[in-house]
Every structure is written in structure tokens, then in C-alpha cells.
Design a protein that fits this description.
CATH class of one domain: Mainly Alpha
Distance between the termini: 40 Å
Shape: globular
Radius of gyration: 21 Å
Strand order of the largest sheet: 1-3-2
CATH superfamily of one domain: Winged helix-like DNA-binding domain superfamily/Winged helix DNA-binding domain
Largest sheet: 3 strands, antiparallel
CATH topology of one domain: Arc Repressor Mutant, subunit A
Order of helices and strands: HHEHHEEHH
Number of helices: 6
Strand content: 5-15%
Structural class: mainly alpha
Helix content: 55-70%
């Protein structure tokens, strides 16, 4: 009987962007990152500040209700001990709670508390108001250009998510 031969992994063709495309890529990434950073900073002004790593964990717990410590560590690309330290701080602030996993009592699942949910709602609301005011200050052509690019951005995000091995 012949042994099955192992399949070779398909080679993924990677395209090298030309100089113009590379410039667009860099400008796009820099603009999206700066937009997110400024929006977050302005939206959080006046709200008791949390270290960015704690805020990142809260956003993650808000997005993936019931996420485990190990999953959070993998996505944040830090050690589980680091996430446990962040959790202790956020539990102490009354923003996150640990709940036992019903199928495995040894595992803790993370959830926002009522105060944590309120904080996230407040931040989202302030961010939406900030963006609405900024968008309304643009001329109609710029607002249409932004609206028109959203489907392409979602398509790009979908392609990147397929390569994201850290997404739970």
C-alpha cells in the first residue's frame, strides 16, 4: 500500500506595489490611524483616563463578550499574565468582571460590568457626535467621497481579516 504523499502548501503570489501604490498605502494607513487616534483622544477628554492597554482590553471585551483571558492575550499579542494584571485593575475599577465558563469552571470569561458598558456607550456616543460634527463641516463633495469609499474599505478589511490568525 502506498503512503499518501503530503500536499504542498499552495504558494501565495504576493504583488509588489509600485511607488505610486506604495505611497497610497502609506498615506491611507497613516490617515486611518491618525483619524482613529485623534477621535479617541478627543472623545475620551473629560472621562477618567485609563491606560491605553486597559482601554484596548475593554474594547476587546465589548466586541467579544465572554472572551477568555488566553484569547484576549493572543489578540493583544501579550502574555496571559499581562492580561491578568489588566483585568485585576479593571475589576478593581468596577469596569470588567470575570464569570465562570459554564462548560469549564476553571476558565474565566470576561464581561463588561454595568459601569463598563456605560463607559463604552458614553465613549461611542461622544465619538459619534464628534465625527458627525466634523463630517457636517465638510463640503458635500467630501462627504460623498467618504461615503463612496466605505464599501471598498469594508472589502479591504474583509480580505485582511481572512489573513488574521488572531481573530477569535
Amino acid at each position: 500500500m502506498r503512503r499518501p504523499t503530503p500536499r504542498r502548501a499552495a504558494r501565495v503570489k504576493t504583488a509588489k506595489p509600485d511607488a505610486d501604490m506604495e505611497s497610497v498605502i502609506v498615506d491611507f494607513q497613516d490617515t486611518v490611524i491618525a483619524l482613529r487616534r485623534v477621535t479617541r483622544r478627543v472623545a475620551l477628554s473629560g472621562i477618567p483616563e485609563l491606560p491605553s492597554s486597559e482601554t484596548e482590553l475593554m474594547v476587546l471585551v465589548d466586541e467579544f463578550r465572554g472572551i477568555s483571558v488566553s484569547q484576549a492575550a493572543r489578540i493583544m499579542q501579550v502574555s496571559p499574565n499581562t492580561v491578568s494584571t489588566l483585568i485585576r485593575s479593571l475589576v478593581g475599577r468596577g469596569l470588567i468582571e470575570r464569570r465562570s465558563n459554564p462548560s469549564d469552571k476553571r476558565l474565566a470569561l470576561l464581561h463588561l460590568t454595568a459601569a463598563g458598558n456605560e463607559r463604552m456607550r458614553n465613549v461611542r456616543s461622544r465619538r459619534a457626535e464628534l465625527m458627525a460634527n466634523a463630517m457636517l463641516s465638510l463640503d458635500k463633495g467630501d462627504r460623498k467621497a467618504i461615503a463612496d469609499v466605505i464599501p471598498a474599505m469594508r472589502n479591504l478589511l474583509g480580505k485582511l481579516k481572512k489573513k488574521d490568525t488572531l481573530d477569535p
